[in-house]
Amino acid sequence: MDKTKVKSFSVWARRNLIKAVTERALKIGIEKNNISEVEQCQHGFKIRGKEEIIDFPIRYIKTLIDNIKQKGFEEIIEEVACIWFFRFIALRYMEVNNYLTEKIIDIQLEKFSSEKQNDMTKSYKYILIKKCNELGKVIPEIFQNKIDYMEILIPDNILDENFIIKRLVEDIEEECLKEENNFLQDYKGLCGVEVIGWMYQYYISEKKDEVFAALKENVKIEKENIPAATQLFTPKWIVKYMVENSLGRLWIDKFKGDSEYIDNEKCTSSKLGKCHTDLLKERWQYYLEESNQETEVEEELDKIRKYKSNISPESITILDPCMGSGHILVYAFDLLYEIYIDAGYNIREIPGLILRNNIYGLDIDEKVTKLASFALKMKARYYNKELFKDIQRDGLKLNICSIEESNEINKEVIDYFCSSQVLKKSINSTFKSSKNTVKNSRVGKSQDSLEVGEYSLRKDVEYLIQVFNNAKEYGSILEVRKINFEALESRIEEIKKEDNFIFGDYRKLILDKMPLLIKQGKIMSMKYDVVITNPPYMGLRGINSKLADFLINNFPISKYDLFSVYMEVCLKYSKKYGIVSMINQHSWMFLSSFMEFRSWLLDKSTFINMLHLGTRAFEENVGTIVQNVAYVSRNYSNCSYKTKVINLTKENSSEEKNIKLKEICSNISKREIYELALKQLFIIPSKPFAYWVNENILKVFSSFKPLSELAKPRQGMATSDNKRFLRQWFEVDINKIKFDANNSEEAQNSGKKWFPYNKGGEYRKWYGNNEFIINWENDGKEVKEYAAKLYKSYSRTIKNEKFYFKKGLTYTFISEDIGARYCQNGFIFDVAGSSIFSEKEEQINIVLALLCSKISKMFLDIMNPTYNIQVGDIKNVPVSKKIFQKEISYKIKNLVHENIIISKNEWDLFETSWDFKWHPFLLIKSGELESDISGDEKNLCNKYISCGFDVWKSFAHKQFEKLKKNEEELNKMLIGIYGFQEELTPEVKDKDITIRRADKERDIKSFISFAVGCMFGRYSTYKKGLIYNGSIDNSIIPMTEEECFEDDIFLRFINFVKDLYGKETLNENLDFIADSIGRKTFETSKQCIKRYFLKDFYKDHLKIYKKKPIYWLLKSGKNEGFGALIYIHRYNEDIIQNVRKNYIHLIIEKYIKQMNKLNSIASSKDYPTKDVNNAKKDIKKISEKIEECKEYEEFLEYLSAKKISIDLDDGIKVNYEKFQLIKFTNSKGIEVKKDLFFKI
């Protein structure tokens, strides 16, 4: 399956259908904010005031209007578009697989050739509706017209070339939709009915993007958006692993527990001609045998197998509580079919038996439930050609449903439901056969304990209504107790027979809702042999408050994510010794917040096997931060049971993981297989499932003291509004920043507003990532007041204040590696840049050495191999006493000190550091950066920038190698101290050295940026560091294609190079610069440099300053008639007027002169034809620039009158937006929106 094509089609189809259904709604008088009046006529209805008759019953339009008023226009349009999407792809699937008597989608329009276009469309709609109604008898979930308005909103352009029907046939290959035997199908691609699930996932992908974009803006995920946010199609090979090792294992265990099978007396009874299940196991590519167990464990397993030996195919029950489009259940169907065959059942009867007896499914999304129903029926149709006839004759009720809510059923409806005297006899007779003890549910909070013989219909109805109130909020995590469902169903049948006009509305509501509530209640109160699912992944922080409170109150140890809640729920759904299989995120295996949950899991279950999948397990790109695990567990606890764990984290794609697993399952490979009792890992402080840890490492954890006894790792603050309280240091007036406060008192007395703030950043060791500042004026008054307003007490988010401004270490919270760094005094720290402190300052370097070593990485990977490094993990890093021995600690401190100096020097050589002094080329030129160069080399560096780069390159390389050597020396020492020579080597890869080497293109571009800084007076070639931050001089630098200004940026740069390196070597230096930044073959050096300034300089500036530029680019428009840079720290209210007076007028005059010259050439006969043609082309180009500049000049005049002021404390983004998308009326009287500056 070409997923790119499928995705492209599905995303397009949604847009196309929504547009087409909206247009159809408009045709029948319905718009988003306006609904026309309609009136009934002989053959349908018409819009009042129009003659066209719409030949549908008027009740259709009335139902549609009622639903729009209730749900909203957009939701109804989305609903109709989605259902027709389902119908079209379902019809196409069935016709490709020859399940239809005639084609409906791939139809030859020639049969309508005698008709006019309108009549053709009408005829096709008639055929389509007729076929849908016919299929509605066997597949009502997709085709039954339960909603009157579904037909009336069929788009009018249904036969157009660019409508979904035509595109579906052309874009989606038939091979994708053809059904194949799942056991013969290889992993090369999905095909068959499951492709429809993929299509729906893609269909809603834009909606999913919207939900997550809103989440980034702190908009919590409400119940309506949970399906879009959480649906993720499970790769087929993982589905096969889960089903084969759960359902398959159940069937294997039956025969292992059967004494006749063990004695080999029944080997010939199988229809497959081998001992029971042997051939099945050969067909299961992903089935894993259990680990060899100790004798006592094996004896217990034998008892379990004997307990399960009496199961039959018809008695097996399988539940997927988050079934989505039924992907897992479809493969379970395939495997069940093989099990029935193995047991000798009649082939034709098997599909119906599976659907009626074995498969159960739940989901909160009604749409995917429809798809799941269709998928299962199509799978059954694949095995039974007469299925549709069988359904029409015998009927078929699937045991799957979407979770419905009881919110509409009030007390009056309940009173009516319970009003029948006749039913009392039915209740009594039904109840006599029911010997259920009704238990209170956690969800229901009912305190009634009903004794046998005291059954109350009302209590059961009230309970059912109560438990399913707002049920779509909670879905299948609701715990439902057994009630007398048979009595409720008897009452439903009685109500069907009643002819009660007085309570007609109640009756309709009951008949619409109660059967669905009873059905889901039955499913949710059952226990199952096998529970398999890929649950939703949604963390507590992103969930709406209602669901979050429910999780906190009802799932205290698993509440942190919905996937972990489902781990608990699935165990509760499973029978004694039942099997649970799931894929989810692997954080529950390692994070300290799940420590209690891990203990609970091992107390309640045993993990039979696990696939540690790591990143990229899914075929879709879900990022490298999402890491997964799949597992199979049994609802039975034995702490001595040895789990088989397969490590697939090293494989870099889903397909590579699949291939590796198949090799392991077929005994081709035995690498990365671990067999152990997981409980033995609990000697590690945070009790992670670090299955790869050996006895040597476990011994260290048990005998060495934790780092918390040596230093104090502390979690940082959360501002609750980073946009408001944080800035990057270059955004504000540097005179308002206090960089070196030693304590809170000193900070408060300084009168400064901004203070350095550690916020993690990218992976970097030893020193650096000093970028952010926080508004901590008056001891953080504003931040604290805001936090107190949100949380009542500011201390909930503002933590560990007594450590603010102290020297220590910091690290990156979200990173594959810790990246610990030395932090000078003066910093406050963020939760993403948590910090470590020590009362003994001399110990800081030793802790830093440990945290930057391979030893620390190994320990942290064991305790938490996720991308979120927790304070608790760092506290538990084992520390050897030997590192404090005098001779060893002396060596460590010296190496660490040297590493800090190297890293600090490198960090400060780039202008985004607040300690930036000069560009490295100038430091080399002055002889400060490289002391061992000869006098001749120094002279060359004074003349040639190429020489400066070569010396810088050599210096950077030496620093890089020195740092690498030091790190390897530290690793060697620590590996020896800890005794990990077998586990680790001291070598460090180049990619793990976090200072930068020389890079010609980057360094020349940074030189150009430095030059621009000098032009603005930010830097100087005579004085180091940030020298000037405010003045009205040099506040505008024009950037235009035409060289009509003496202070044009290009000319000033040429002069800068000439002044710095001399006139004699100017051309050589310009050549070197041009070649370094990508000179094209036909360009001179000056042309290349000019092109760079006009096209790429500002893009690079935005990258360096992370879209918070300190130089702002005035731009007249897309024709680039005029451009100029201003320096934000030199902005004043007159700057716009100065641009208008001193630059824009002049360039317009220049263009007009050019235009006059070109006109004379174009109209003259004295010039060659080529010149005349070129002049005519240029006339158009120049005239566009003139028009653009004139409108821009008007815009400048309009803005200059406004005298827009800025406040640097508000940050770059807020100030920048003051000048963007401003409405103004141009000289033509047209109101337009214009940007003053380049659009970021």
From TrEMBL:
A Pfam family recorded for this sequence: Eco57I
Domain Type II methyltransferase M.TaqI-like: 357-615
Keyword entries, A-Z: Endonuclease, Hydrolase, Methyltransferase, Nuclease, S-adenosyl-L-methionine, Transferase
Enzyme nomenclature, EC number: 2.1.1.72
One GO BP annotation of this record: methylation
MF GO annotations: endonuclease activity; nucleic acid binding; site-specific DNA-methyltransferase (adenine-specific) activity
Catalytic activity: a 2'-deoxyadenosine in DNA + S-adenosyl-L-methionine = an N(6)-methyl-2'-deoxyadenosine in DNA + S-adenosyl-L-homocysteine + H(+)
Gene3D superfamilies linked: Vaccinia Virus protein VP39
Family matches, as InterPro entries: BREX_1_PglX (IPR047939), DNA_methylase_N6_adenine_CS (IPR002052), MethylTrfase_TaqI-like_dom (IPR011639), N4_N6_ade-DNA_methylase (IPR050953), SAM-dependent_MTases_sf (IPR029063)
UniProt name for this protein: site-specific DNA-methyltransferase (adenine-specific)
Annotated organism of origin: Clostridium drakei
